[in-house]
Amino acid sequence: MNHGASYLKPFFARAYAKINLTLDVLGRRPDGYHELASVMQTVSLADTLLFRSLADGGTEFFCDVPALNGTDNLVYRAVQALREATGREQGVRIELQKQTPTQGGLGGGSSDAARVLLALNAWWKLGMSQEQLMDLAAGLGSDVPFFVLGGTALVEGRGERVTPLPDLPGLWVVLLKPSVAVSTPAAFRALTPDDYTTGQATARLASALRADDLPLLDGLVIALEARICQDYPMVTEGRVALVEAGAQVVRMSGSGPTLFALFQSLEQAQRIYQALLQRGWQVWLVRTVSQAEAGAADPYLGPGDEPFSEQGSQGML
Ligand code: C5P
Q: Which residue has the higher pLDDT, 67 or 218?
């Protein structure tokens, strides 16, 4: 096979999903977005991306979920954003295998986009700083900048201000996705000033993590949760199912509808996961993912890794 001079060995990268441990909505902004304060956390549920060189230039994209397989996918748009910012024409084919449910509040599409920015920045030796990548990320969507960093982070503004926090002590996470699709714009639009929160829940969790205190997980607040539960009875049913199965801390992630429960003990998490699975709920048993691990989700971007070589000697295929 002749791949041409610019051939680089194909490689896989992982795009972790997130949960919002807290999500304070402080108010509506003049630009129509909402001012947020949130502690976000990557979890081990992940999509898989394959990057492959195209000798003839151009961008090809394939996603195994037909509804997501098009040029309006954030993966494709992330490549285009990088090309516009840098003038790069190098050809790339990206294949995306989805594991993270869409419209679930778990940031799957945003994470895929951030992984593309990070991976191509390294693969094409673009030399963009984290700040520049975050700027590009913010142009793609409010949740994308967080995923440039991953781990545990304080996210503010529209989502573009991301401050790393010390990693949350490792926890097991049961995710339950009620079978309803919630549109994020509709969820935000439905909010009234009564739903706005002060930001205290986020500030409290951020200070506890910074002080190395074990955070009080029952103080977590998700501003969108009450209204989504009210509008979508299936979400309330999911919450009741988790509590009846024995989960103590149950919250909704982002604009939902996915619910999460946190556990220190795998035994307990496993018991609850099995019980919900048997009752026919769509559930996953995952864990929190640290910032170092999220950064290493790309074979070439982990701590101490050398940048890509033309030979692609570390390639996975
Ligand atoms: O930025 P993104 O396109 O992902 O946001 C989707 C929608 O979610 C926005 O159109 C807006 O309705 C809502 N949103 C918001 N405030 C934010 C983030 C998102 O109102 N901070």
A: 67
